[in-house]
């Protein structure tokens, strides 16, 4: 009898454990369930909620109105899907962002916003983002930017004839050096041969333009309606010099009053609206500051890992900092064959000639200061600014600016096409009622 009672008690206890375990698992699923499968990755509800909170905090801080929750959720999920596809591509290619590189980027972001790291962290908290979350988000953005540059940059070619035509058009129009802060909305058209799709897109963009003209906030509309990759940033395109405006808006923006929505514009991507949020400058620039720079580059390769390249550049930095001759080290170790053979000399460099990471380090460096190590799309660098001068704007500088403007315009178009391609080619399965379809 006692044995039977003991057995019953054990059975009851086991049943209670199973029930508690099932309850815990049910709670766990409720709190953090899979919302989408993306190739070999999954997106969790906790990730979706965290990103929504981040974007909501940023938009509120900017004073930008929020779209309905279901629309915001759908757009953020699409952003996470696109990011996941690109991060998986980066992982297969062995792309990594080291903690040192990430720390330098965070310090640079804080500095550009006139903050210390502590103040930057506090600002993030006010926007509802922890410093740890921000670090990983910025790391992911750095990786996806690198993937985009590698994949899309290879598609973009700028010919000498295009540069000549651009410069001729600039001269004919008498463009100034005014700068414009722009916001942008895209209503995408996948097939311009589909009259029904084109008509629906045109009708939608015209309706949005009318609502904006009547007072609806442009950035809020971009968040809720735009198909562009910067939609969740309120369509922000940043500051653009007049000679670097995309060709689609180059003839419209200079005559557009601040805060006024443009006419509907059309190109191969679809229908567009643009707004000048602010403007500055406008006088003819007579001089630019040039920097005389030398650098050392260490590339990654099939035989040189990211960690090995970083360790090598840091060792070279230490050698030079301890008194070794920069030119000698450059000749012996730099992976830039042209400048390396000349002791690392790049000559006089004008603004806009170098990739952003290089230009930022160059502009921050004092004359004679050894700067770095830092990472660009080409590898790991250290640089030294040997001198600076004010120089009349030359034909070479104008050509470089023109080439950069054309490249950026083409890159933006190709990026939109590429993001659509990788989205279409990916295996994506939505769970728990998320997404327009159960599978795509």
The mean pLDDT is 85
CATH topological fold name of the largest domain:
Triger factor/SurA peptide-binding fold
Give the CATH architecture of the largest domain. Answer: Orthogonal Bundle
Rounded Rg: 26 Å
Which percent bin holds the helix content? 40-55%
Give the strand order, joined by hyphens, for the main sheet: 4-3-6-5
Order of helices and strands: HEEHHHHHHEHHEHEEEHHHEHEEHE
General description of the model:
This protein is an alpha+beta fold and 440 residues long. It has helices spanning 2-31, 45-62, 69-92, 99-112, 117-126, 131-153, 160-173, 195-213, 218-225, 247-250, 306-321, 326-333, 337-340, 356-364, 395-425; strands at residues 34-38, 41-44, 179-188, 236-241, 265-267, 270-280, 287-298, 345-349, 370-376, 379-392, 428-430. It folds into 3 domains: 34-154, Triger factor/SurA peptide-binding fold (Orthogonal Bundle); 175-284, Chitinase A, domain 3; 287-392, Chitinase A, domain 3 (Roll).
Which keywords apply here?
440 residues, alpha+beta, Triger factor/SurA peptide-binding fold, Chitinase A, domain 3, 3 domains, 4-stranded antiparallel sheet, 15 helices, 11 strands, globular, disordered N terminus
